[in-house]
Amino acid sequence: MNIDIELIQESKIDKVDFNNLAFGKVFSDHMLVCDFADGEWKTPKIMPYGPLSFEPSARVFHYGQAVFEGMKAYKDDNDDVFLFRPDENFHRLNKSGERLAMPPVPEEVFIEGLKKLLKIDNTWIKKGMGNSLYIRPFIIASEGAISASPAEEYKFIIICSPAQSYYAGEVRVIFAEKYSRSADGGVGFAKAAGNYAAQFYPTSLAHKEGYQQIVWTDANTHEYLEEAGTMNVFFRIGNKLITAPTNDRILDGITRKSIIQLAKDYNIEVEIRRVSVAEIKEAARDGELKEIFGSGTAAVINPIKGFKHQNETFELPDLNDSYASFFKDKLLKIQYNILEDKHSWRVKI
Ligand SMILES: *Cc1c(COP(=O)(O)O)cnc(C)c1O
């Protein structure tokens, strides 16, 4: 595959304090941009990271025709660089795009383009457990024309942001009673930009009450727990792990499916089924609810310390042998090439 390459004159890397990185604010020297026009994807370009210009009428601004992915590159002690299940991100991006009537990005543009970009910006990937380069591939409708129909021109872009291990502090959540993230037949399964914008307001209300996130419930009854804003959710009752099945309302997280596989590998009982608010509250009252945690690429696993539903609040116990830390340790060690990779999840660059 051809890629046009324009390298930066002088790297910005020396100006970056890698010990004090705010998530998603600093970007590496280069980005990949590939245009779709005249019914085809053109030759991708790797160029210096920087502003792009668009017509104010570009459809992405008006109709939110945009989808994205989130993934990471990891460096081991020998300076080898790895991706974690990148084919999953590639397929999911196009699955999201299909739902928003966007043309699929070719596999070689995504995978080969990303590998080339990471080779060029290799020094931005720092070794040491927890350090990574967060990768944000996305597609936007760039055509300038404000008729409410799918665009005929798109841009596929990959930008990269150095990240440190992500600690969100103690997380407490509200189980949603009024607002919904997604509905049957909707776009909840897609990483569609508008799904996130629509959560900002209800989440800001939760913040005012001292809760960091919302665990969304099914839109029809608000009786079943689905997922959090950017994370799938797991519950541990006794020694059993439970998570909701994915469907058209729930994002099919790669961390989630990896945890389910690891649970099977390590003989931890895991049930994939609907989880009701009533069941979780009852288990909490009985002392059977041991843990709740979220899973996603950014934080890997985020333990949830407590939750609120209607006017009741619940706190979860501190555990020495939590599943959250067990799975986080295993996943990180696979990602950083420390542990055997039985399922061929690592892809070396
Ligand atoms: C990205 C995302 C996740 C987590 O997916 P991973 O592939 O594990 O990073 C979960 N829920 C939502 C809504 C997401 O956007």
Automatic annotation (TrEMBL):
<keyword id="KW-0663">Pyridoxal phosphate</keyword>
<dbReference type="GO" id="GO:0052656">
    <property type="term" value="F:L-isoleucine-2-oxoglutarate transaminase activity"/>
</dbReference>
<comment type="similarity">
    <text>Belongs to the class-IV pyridoxal-phosphate-dependent aminotransferase family.</text>
</comment>
<comment type="pathway">
    <text>Amino-acid biosynthesis; L-valine biosynthesis; L-valine from pyruvate: step 4/4.</text>
</comment>
<dbReference type="InterPro" id="IPR043131">
    <property type="entry name" value="BCAT-like_N"/>
</dbReference>
<dbReference type="GO" id="GO:0009098">
    <property type="term" value="P:L-leucine biosynthetic process"/>
</dbReference>
<dbReference type="InterPro" id="IPR018300">
    <property type="entry name" value="Aminotrans_IV_CS"/>
</dbReference>
<keyword id="KW-0808">Transferase</keyword>
<keyword id="KW-0100">Branched-chain amino acid biosynthesis</keyword>
<dbReference type="InterPro" id="IPR043132">
    <property type="entry name" value="BCAT-like_C"/>
</dbReference>
<dbReference type="InterPro" id="IPR033939">
    <property type="entry name" value="BCAT_family"/>
</dbReference>
<dbReference type="GO" id="GO:0052655">
    <property type="term" value="F:L-valine-2-oxoglutarate transaminase activity"/>
</dbReference>
<comment type="pathway">
    <text>Amino-acid biosynthesis; L-leucine biosynthesis; L-leucine from 3-methyl-2-oxobutanoate: step 4/4.</text>
</comment>
<dbReference type="GO" id="GO:0009097">
    <property type="term" value="P:isoleucine biosynthetic process"/>
</dbReference>
<dbReference type="GO" id="GO:0009099">
    <property type="term" value="P:L-valine biosynthetic process"/>
</dbReference>
<keyword id="KW-0032">Aminotransferase</keyword>
<comment type="function">
    <text>Acts on leucine, isoleucine and valine.</text>
</comment>
<keyword id="KW-0028">Amino-acid biosynthesis</keyword>
<protein>
    <recommendedName>
        <fullName>Branched-chain-amino-acid aminotransferase</fullName>
        <ecNumber>2.6.1.42</ecNumber>
    </recommendedName>
</protein>
<dbReference type="Pfam" id="PF01063">
    <property type="entry name" value="Aminotran_4"/>
</dbReference>
<dbReference type="GO" id="GO:0052654">
    <property type="term" value="F:L-leucine-2-oxoglutarate transaminase activity"/>
</dbReference>
<dbReference type="InterPro" id="IPR036038">
    <property type="entry name" value="Aminotransferase-like"/>
</dbReference>
<feature type="modified residue" description="N6-(pyridoxal phosphate)lysine">
    <location>
        <position position="191"/>
    </location>
</feature>
<dbReference type="InterPro" id="IPR005786">
    <property type="entry name" value="B_amino_transII"/>
</dbReference>
<dbReference type="InterPro" id="IPR001544">
    <property type="entry name" value="Aminotrans_IV"/>
</dbReference>
